[in-house]
Amino acid sequence: MPKIGCYTLPNPVILAPMAGVTDLPFRRLCRRLGAGLVVGEMVASNPALRHTRKSQLRLDHRDEPEPIAVQIVGGDPHMLAESARFNVANGAQIIDINMGCPAKKVCNKAAGSALLRDEKLVNEILLRVVESVDVPVTLKIRTGWDTDNRNGPRIAELAQKAGIASLAVHGRTRACRYQNTVEYDTIKTIKQYVDIPVFANGDITSAEKAADVMAYTGADGVLIGRAAQGRPWIFREIVHYLNTGKQLTAPPSAEIEAILLEHLQALYDFYGELMGVRIARKHVSWYLQEQPDHLAFRHYFNGLQSPQEQSQAIHTFFKDSFNSKEHAA
Ligand SMILES: Cc1cc2nc3c(=O)[nH]c(=O)nc-3n(C[C@H](O)[C@H](O)[C@H](O)COP(=O)(O)O)c2cc1C
């Protein structure tokens, strides 16, 4: 199993960091359903932003299964090093540096994947952060700045030299954002450049695809992002397939209902009722996107204002869809 510094992961399937998605309730759920490691939403390195409600929620690691991985984002080596120290003092056991995010807000301040253009600055950041903490430091990158500047392999070498413990590679350049097909070839090249564990990322949506990508790239594991939205059991499916070569049967609708209700309750508990009810809406639409009649239900669900109404609506939705399937059978 892949090792990240002193931590041996129970399996090679990791939840990718996603701002607005991989909050504490979702991380706990994904761990329970099989993820070998989960990475939280990026945390701004600027200490001036630390006291906002958003940052406070991102800094909360109550009952979080170990090792706790925190991703930091920013463009200033000293601020990032200080942020790493702060987060370790706050419970982080792995620090991940974000050089993979193309979001404008971040890139305007030359952070995230915008850093890939400046290898000297990348090196300075890696060295400062690694020397500032005693825990493993990992790095998440894209394959390069744009398709003419795929410097991912060089960045990977810099990372290894600087003491980075593992590398996650989203197989697109910064310029490609979320378009273009994922370049598993470049991930394969990067894996050949370094000895540290490399995790492949991008468009992995099924257990077979995870196994194929690992076999093709030689990667030590995979990061799953959007495919886990509304489908947190994808982790146990991938792990089962990697271990046995066999597909795990899809969860029955009673289990999906139970997982969704557990997720909603965790959102209400974590964010409070007002914010929890709002955040629940996008998760519910992801969970139900494959179900017939989901659009009409989504419209209705988004008008509900309390946890009780939301939970009751989910219960009724599953009961009705179960009854109509029984009826059709
Ligand atoms: C809503 C959303 C938020 C994201 N936030 C982050 C982030 O905070 N840090 C980061 O490194 N990548 C972030 N990403 C990128 C993902 O970690 C991942 O690299 C990307 O989605 C590709 O993987 P996938 O095809 O499995 O989704 C985000 C992606 C999405 C869709």
What secondary-structure arrangement, pairings included, does this model have?
Elements lengths: L2 E2 L2 E2 L4 E3 L8 H9 L4 E2 L4 E2 L8 H6 L10 E5 L3 H13 L4 E6 L4 H4 L11 H14 L4 E8 L7 H11 L3 E8 L10 H10 L4 E4 L5 H11 L3 E4 L9 H11 L8 H19 L1 H16 L5 H8 L5 H22 L1
Parallel strand pairs: 3-4, 3-11, 5-6, 6-7, 7-8, 8-9, 9-10, 10-11
Antiparallel strand pairs: 1-2
Question: Could you please describe the fold and organization of this structure?
Answer:
47% of the residues lie in helices and 14% in strands. With 329 residues, it is α/β, with parallel strands linked by helices. The protein has a 9-stranded parallel sheet. A two-stranded antiparallel sheet has the order 1-2. The chain folds into 2 domains: 242 residues, Aldolase class I (TIM Barrel, Alpha-Beta Barrel); 76 residues, Non-ribosomal Peptide Synthetase Peptidyl Carrier Protein, Chain A (Orthogonal Bundle). It binds flavin mononucleotide. Flavin mononucleotide binds next to loops.
Short recap of the structure:
The protein is α/β, with parallel strands linked by helices and 329 residues long. The chain has 13 helices and eleven strands. Helix 3 runs parallel beside helix 5, helix 5 runs parallel beside helix 6 (152-162) and helix 8 (207-217) crosses helix 9 (234-244).
